[in-house]
């Protein structure tokens, strides 16, 4: 498929996905919440800039299971499969040839630190979804990290425009300890929903629990309601 045709296909599929999830997105906590809990002036989403129970930090702590996988770019692959019409296995070059998005967003860790205004570059989850065409029955995704981490997220959250698979932070390659070469970010949910060293995105037809969700963390992970545990 040539490039313009591929882009047209993404644009069309993106519009269909938006229409399909519009209603559900409107009722997600970060859109429907009329009294978000937290302190400070409204952020770019109209939320108090510091969610309830969070403290701002300028540092960027490292939090993970302790394994930092070594992933040379020529060996790196990203698989997108499950309940989709066109499963994909991307190389680094395939991934970098997709439409690239720059965005600045915030990072809220469930262990109570938040880091604001982080400048990212990467590929929208929405654009990857548009490429693989989730089946009508798809409702969630499970993300898998190269370190064996897993985390689940509903499609209405995953398809938000600030959910990215990022490879660049502050104009430099994403450091390995923060999930480089590629990690996911979920700025409107607690940060454990974003898998570092992302390896696979599986579309699901029903919800399943990831690593922390199985251990009592919240399914929904919405920071402005202190939604830490289930
Ligand atoms: N693959 C993988 N992704 C992960 C984790 C992990 O252990 N493995 N930890 C999660 C948690 S609990 C948090 S708070 C953030 C931390 O990201 P950071 O180390 O870049 O601050 O990554 C999330 N993504
Ligand atoms: Mo975390």
pLDDT averaged residue by residue: 96
What is the N-to-C succession of helices and strands?
HHEEEEEHEEHEEHEEEEH
Helical segment count: 6
Question: What is Rg?
Answer: 17 Å
Percentage beta strand: 25-35%
Q: Would you identify the CATH H-level superfamily?
A: Oxidoreductase, molybdopterin-binding domain
Major sheet: size, sense and barrel closure?
A: 6 strands, mixed
Could you list the spans in which at least 5 consecutive residues all have pLDDT below 50?
none
Helix-residue proportion: 10-25%
User: And the CATH topology?
Assistant: Sulfite Oxidase, Chain A, domain 2
Morphology call: globular
Number of DSSP E strands: 13
Backbone structural class? alpha+beta
Number of discrete domains: 1
Instruction: Return the CATH architecture.
Output: Alpha-Beta Complex
In whole angstroms, how far apart are the ends? 45 Å
Q: Catalogue the ligands.
A: the ligand Nc1nc2c(c(=O)[nH]1)N[C@H]1C(S)=C(S)[C@@H](COP(=O)(O)O)O[C@H]1N2, molybdenum atom
CATH class: Alpha Beta
Fold blueprint:
Elements: H1 3-26, H2 29-32, E1 38-42, E2 48-51, E3 55-56, E4 77-82, E5 88-91, H3 92-96, E6 101-108, E7 113-124, H4 125-132, E8 140-145, E9 150-154, H5 155-158, E10 164-169, E11 172-173, E12 183-185, E13 198-204, H6 211-214
Parallel strand pairs: 3-7, 4-13
Antiparallel strand pairs: 1-2, 4-5, 6-7, 7-10, 8-9, 8-13, 10-11, 10-12
